[in-house]
Specification:
- Chains B, E: It is found in: Cell membrane.
- Chains B, E: Keywords: ATP-binding, Cell membrane, Membrane, Nucleotide-binding, Transport.
- Chains B, E: It is an enzyme of class 7 (translocase).
- Chains B, E: This is ABC-type polar-amino-acid transporter.
- The complex is a heteropentamer, with two copies of chain A (294 residues), two copies of chain B (274 residues) and one copy of chain C (280 residues).
- Chain A is mainly α and 294 residues long.
- Helix content of chain A is 71%, strand content 3%.
- A two-stranded antiparallel sheet of chain A has the order 1-2.
- Chain A has a single domain, classed as Orthogonal Bundle (MetI-like fold).
- Chain B has a domain of 185 residues: P-loop containing nucleotide triphosphate hydrolases (Rossmann fold), CATH 3.40.50.300.
- Chain B is built from nine helices and twelve strands.
- Chain B has a six-stranded mixed sheet, sandwiched between helices. In chain B, strands 2-1-4-5 form a four-stranded antiparallel sheet, covered by helices on one side. Chain B has a two-stranded antiparallel sheet with strand order 6-7.
- The two termini of chain B are 16 Å apart.
- Chain C has 280 residues and is α/β, with parallel strands linked by helices.
- In chain C, the strands form three sheets. In chain C, strands 4-1-5-12-6-13 form a six-stranded mixed sheet, sandwiched between helices.
- Chain C is globular, with a radius of gyration of 19 Å.
- The relative contact order of chain C is 0.19.
- The chains are: A mainly alpha (294), B alpha/beta (274), C alpha/beta (280).
- Chains in contact: A-B, A-C, A-D, A-E, B-D, B-E, C-D, D-E.
- The interface between C and D is medium-sized, with 27 and 25 residues.
- The structure holds adenosine-5'-triphosphate (2 copies) and magnesium ion (2 copies).
- One magnesium ion binds next to α1 of chain B.
Chain lengths: 294, 274, 280, 294, 274
């Protein structure tokens, strides 16, 4: 056989086979244990998985998560931009915002917003130093849902601001100079150069945040809003079937998280257009990498 | 390799008297720029007419890129007068001081100044076509269709038809450089700054790009070109500035300087050209 | 499965009449509004929880709150919130009162107006068959064992220290007490073998043992308290204009049959008290 | 005056002055309201701020946070590397790990680990298919602290893996090629090229995570471990002084968070050596930027 | 600008017979490389002796960079034989196929192959000195002190004394390029691949770098240089390969090809040189 015609094969090393075996084994072991162990009470899990209160809780969790995540991200981008403003006091204010809202527990923030009336029984909305304006019944304004939305959004914004700042850090200086040289306005530059290019680093962290938020929303139970976790807790506080009901919650969270995985990978792919072949990080050299297990 | 500053520089007279000038002019007096303690430009004078091609040559690290970056406002000079297109760049002069312009005003000035970077700096998330269109659509607010048409014709001019939809990462060095040139040209600025625009190009392309540049010059576009290609300088330049360690060593008519360099440093440099 | 009888879910306020003496004590504003709000954490069967059928609040505390409203001729709006927000909510005027199983301690009296309304007991729940033989018949049987108590409860704050004293006196090892945030977690740990007993309010434990009879066993003997320390109160804001009226309504309730009926349908007959008091 | 001698001034625009005024105003307003509103009960706050149980809670929180964060980060890096392995089953396993541990609530995970005995009363440790090995008392092994550490670490690792992956994404391909061309081993490349260069994007997100972890540790209260939040809850469930005690917790969290800010900025500075002037993102063009307020 | 593939290429005979060769040799037969549907290298043959300097010239996008990247294993060829330093690169030949080597083996092969990238790719988080030291310390496990000494002397050779502690971002294009050259030289490989090593250098430096390269060649280092500078090719190259659209158009003795190009495409290209 002529040497030039010999095919270049992709070697599946022993390591790869071992890993496959391990992979299958782990899944089998987990599946076996889940199925055979009666303590998981799968019948109870099945019974409550689609119970009406649970579904209501799921919907509320999804709604709250997306609303607060959306608002929080928008606010977070604004704060990240302000955080790198050339004007010192703006930077200071943005920094203080981030420190404060990241620094205090969400639980405390939620309780604070909900009970703002305990501290400020009547707030005047109006034009200062004039008589125009009216007293507002704070308790009527701050319904549990409003308080939850405000609290979670403000908190989320602080975290997102830091993530976005990290993304901005990853945009090469040459890109910004290029945009400046074309005479782009700050806004255009942000929208068309900085944000798209920081996406590959921002998305994984945002995914974390979004998934975290799914669970963070469970804190709203202190306001008497029944999200997913709270609704299963209400059930098991009555029936004491704690573990199967926690499994119901865990399964729902898992479903929601996995459902997010697909759009996330699509977005990641979209924004990694233009990096060679659009593949994930080539940690490995092209040559040795694709061939061999570690 | 002599990079150390040659301290006693003879005073160099710019070839032309100082004016405020109009569109397409670059006027500089005693420009100084330092990074921390390192002085990178020292008392540089410039005087470029509309439609003139001026080549900047000089050893590596002599400040050519920095000078071009100053003229585009990417770096700000520490002192001296710098007027591009007849306006003080990034500042307005008052009786006692220079006050910075607002960001909007600076951006407006910049649309009249094009720049091709030494490292190209193409937007990696845009195809060749979109890179070229970016300035037109995002800054000049040209309709997408018209911009795409114009961009296509520019890419053709630099020999890149068929590469419109490729991302920069899938292009060779020379291809990227030509996209960068087309992107800057698309804005149709009055003053173009080229930082080694042909460093990644093969001799054939150098000829073609040079042709494009000459055409533009005939249409009245002013060009400042930092380059290491003496052949290039000889063929196209009207004036030529030889820099060394941040100072102007010789500045005058291009063919004149290349043929009969007055300063010893210039002679020494030109001797080495292959 | 946490099921309740239809009788338990029926409206207890039927047939209750306003008590004119109590109504007279109401401030004009409340009378006009015709409504009061009560806050409670609806995850404590059988005193306050959600019905399986229509998710409406039910339980002894819910009944009492409704009965108080009926006595005063007011609508009662029930808000389900966690303990953390109840007190700030009352202080901020969001809620008028709370019927959570609060025991009055001197510290708490500083913060809220407390009105006594029944007597809870404290019991012990163990795994089925009570393998360690833990019982309040001989309090020393608990010494050296792991027992769960809930944070902030009278059991944790008052009874346990006195039990520890007993152990010390008897020369036994102290009780290994673990403070947990809620009774559900305590019972989970009981079933995983981490806890040997859970020490908590009798009604709650009785409910749990009824729900999971193959796991938990209720010990019949209640903790022998000194009289008066286990009284349960409902709370209002300090200097609330409602206190007097609520107290009067409560006393009028105690004097009627409805009080016994309310206790009775949750199996809490033994908790009746003869007289309601304002503690401050 | 000769034009070349005129100084180039830094203009403080009206915007900048307004911002300074606003800045001072906001701080004053907050300070005023904090001081004058009696409902904050500062005396109670002061009384409990250094109470022994609170301090114990703070220490436990700090200890748990740092231990789990450290272990979680190390494990997270490993998983991020495996996640971009060329061997498919390894990628799948790493991906499943991330999905699972991010996807289920930490509360559920903690309860699971702590009560693993309820599900698996006796686990055999030993060599399969032989008689060698011994039964382990799971409850004795899984003390509350062990369960908390295991649960929080495994969870943290999943989040960190995603953050690290985002950081890896931000390293230009040319850098990896450069390292390959020098013949660096995978390990050296990771340690000397990829990790240092991904730091600027990883640090802000990690800061988020660390601060989040401070508060996440409060979930360990379900295991009967009294962290900071749990210790103040224990107090206010006794005294009903909810708001001042939540302020005590919030202040402590804030102190811990702010204390982290300084080392974080130092680390950021360290790793941004070599980017021009080591300054934060030059969102602004050098010229217009430094001069003018937005 | 003619970039379209010239389909009927005459068969080009490599100047020397095929051998397994030893340290310092590069041997390629019918190398093919494509990205997706785009074939970038087509039946390229190579035959480079130890100590030879071979220049790759050709229009932009003709595949010079890609060929160098293949020789370093950064891209893998789709088919053909590729032996560097006498070993099959990245693969071992069995009776019926090529089986990939382990990563360790590939890394070991690479320490014998140096590369200077078209875009330099310096490590931005390391100073010039540490960039040069990186290979020695991290790969060859040389003691830090000895490595620093060696690195310092290399930086001096390329005219960068005094720049040891500067970060790449604070250096001019030419300075960065010289650091990149020093970094590759520090590893003392048997085969060096240069991708336009003088594109950012001024004529003086081109001369000096060329001097360094000639010295190395005399010491027996093999070099493949992709370049657009014909002067450079004329001065230093032993052999010269002219590529166009991924194919070898002409391959032979450098002076011979430059002086008397046989193929029409080569003549046409060389005519354009300024
Ligand atoms: N940001 C910076 N900080 C410090 N020094 C800098 C910075 N940018 C450039 N320099 C220094 O300024 C000098 C001039 O750099 P410049 O890039 O202008 O040179 P050049 O003439 O373009 O050289 P080349 O021909 O190599 O591109 C160099 O010595 C360089 O090290
Ligand atoms: N990753 C890639 N994906 C797709 N096409 C690619 C990729 N890399 C290179 N190419 C294409 O391969 C061809 C050869 O590229 P290469 O970089 O080898 O050219 P070159 O000879 O080095 O050119 P130059 O002189 O401009 O540097 C070009 O047409 C380029 O567009
Ligand atoms: Mg330069
Ligand atoms: Mg190339």
């Amino acid at each position: 056989m002529d040497a030039t015609e010999k095919p270049r094969v992709r070697r599946r090393s022993a390591v790869e086979y071992v890993m496959w075996a391990l992979c299958v084994l782990v899944f089998l072991a987990i599946a076996y244990s889940l199925v055979t162990n009666p303590r998981y009470e799968w019948d109870v899990v099945a019974e409550y998985f689609t119970a009406e209160t649970v579904i209501d809780g799921v919907l509320l969790t999804i709604m709250l998560t997306f609303v607060t995540m959306f608002l929080g991200t928008v606010l977070g981008i604004v704060i990240a931009v302000l955080r790198s403003s050339p004007v010192m006091p703006v930077r200071v204010l943005a920094g203080a915002y981030i420190s404060f809202f990241r620094g205090t527990p969400v639980l405390v923030q939620l309780i604070f917003w909900f009970n703002v009336a305990a501290l400020y029984p009547d707030i005047n909305i109006g034009i200062p130093f004039t008589d125009i304006g009216s007293e507002v019944d704070v308790n009527a304004l701050m319904t549990p849902i409003v308080a939850a939305t405000v609290g979670l959004t403000l908190n989320q914004a602080a975290y997102m601001a830091e993530i976005v700042r990290g993304g901005f850090n990853s945009v090469p200086k040459g890109q910004i100079e290029s945009a400046d040289a074309l005479g782009m306005s700050e806004w255009t530059k942000l929208r068309k150069v900085i944000i798209p290019q920081s996406m590959p680093t921002v998305i994984p962290a945002t995914g974390n945040q979004l998934i975290g938020q799914f669970k963070e929303t469970s804190l709203v139970s202190v306001l008497g809003v029944a999200d997913l976790l709270q609704s299963v807790q209400l059930i098991y506080s009555r029936t004491y079937e704690t573990i199967p009901l926690l499994i119901v919650a865990a399964l729902w969270y898992l479903v929601m998280t996995l459902a997010l995985g697909y759009p996330q990978s699509l977005i990641e792919k979209h924004y990694s257009k233009g990096t060679r072949a659009g593949t994930p990080v080539p940690l490995e050299p092209a040559l040795a990498g694709a061939e061999e297990g570690r | 390799m002599n990079e150390s500053a040659t301290k006693q520089q003879p005073t160099v007279e710019p070839p032309q008297a100082a004016t405020k000038g109009g569109l397409g002019t670059v006027y500089g007096r005693q420009l100084v720029k330092s990074f921390g303690h390192r002085t990178v430009l020292q008392d540089v004078d410039l005087d470029i007419k509309s439609g003139e091609i001026c080549c900047l040559i000089g050893p590596s690290g002599s400040g050519k890129s920095t000078l071009l970056r100053c003229i585009n406002g990417l770096e700000k000079v520490d002192s001296g007068i710098l007027r591009v297109n007849g306006e003080d760049l990034g500042y307005e002069e008052t009786e006692t001081q220079y006050r910075p312009l607002s960001k909007k005003q600076v951006a407006a000035q910049r649309t009249q100044i094009g720049m091709v970077f030494q490292h190209f700096n193409l937007f990696p998330n845009m195809t060749a076509l979109h890179n070229v269109m970016s300035g037109l659509v995002l800054v000049k607010r040209v309709k997408k269709q018209a911009a795409a048409e114009h961009a296509r014709s520019l890419l053709q001019q630099v020999g890149l038809d068929g590469h419109e939809n490729h991302y920069p990462s899938a292009m060779s060095g020379g291809q990227q450089q030509r996209v960068a040139i087309a992107r800057a040209l698309a804005m149709d600025p009055s003053v173009m700054l080229f930082d080694e625009p042909t460093s990644a190009l093969d001799p054939e392309l150098v000829g073609e790009v040079l042709g494009v540049m000459q055409q533009l010059a005939e249409k009245g576009m002013t060009m400042l070109v930092a380059t290491h290609e003496m052949g290039f300088a000889r063929e196209v330049a009207d004036s030529l500035m030889f820099m060394c360690a941040g100072r102007t060593v010789e500045y005058g008519d291009a063919r004149e300087v290349l043929a009969h360099p007055k300063e010893e440093r210039t002679q020494q440099f030109l001797e080495k050209v292959l | 499965d946490g099921s309740t009888t239809p009788e338990q879910e029926s409206d207890i306020t039927k047939g209750v009449e306003e008590d004119p003496a109590a109504v007279k004590l109401l401030p004009a504003k409340t009378k006009n509004d015709g409504e009061i709000t009560v806050a409670m954490d609806l995850s404590y069967p059988p005193t306050s929880f959600l019905s399986e059928e229509d998710k409406s609040p039910i339980g002894y505390n819910v009944d009492i709150a409704r009965l108080l409203g009926a006595k005063l001729g007011l609508e009662v709006e029930i808000k389900d919130v966690s303990f953390d927000t109840i007190i700030p909510g009352i202080q901020g005027g969001r809620y008028d009162f709370t019927t959570t199983n609060m025991t009055p301690t001197p510290e708490r009296r500083k913060v809220l107006e407390l009105v006594t309304y029944w007597n809870s007991g404290s019991s012990l729940v163990t795994p089925v068959d009570n393998p360690e033989g833990l019982t309040f018949d001989e309090p020393e049987s608990l010494c050296g064992h792991t027992v769960a108590v809930m944070k902030g409860t009278t059991q944790a704050e008052q009874y346990l220290p006195s039990l520890q004293d007993d152990c010390k006196k008897a020369g036994e090892a102290p009780i290994d007490a673990v403070v947990l945030p809620n009774v559900q977690e305590a019972l989970t740990q009981l079933s995983s073998g981490r806890m040997e007993a859970v020490f908590y309010d009798t009604p709650s434990l009785a409910w749990a043992a009824k729900q999971q009879p193959d796991q938990f066993e209720m010990q019949d003997q209640q903790y022998q308290k000194e009289t008066g320390t286990d009284v349960v109160t409902f709370g209002l804001a300090k200097n609330s204009p409602l206190t007097k009226a609520m107290h009067a309504a409560m006393q009028s309730l105690i004097d009627s049959d409805k009080y016994k009926e309310a206790l009775g349908r949750w199996g809490l007959e033994s908790g009746a008290i003869p007289k309601s008091e304002i503690l401050n």
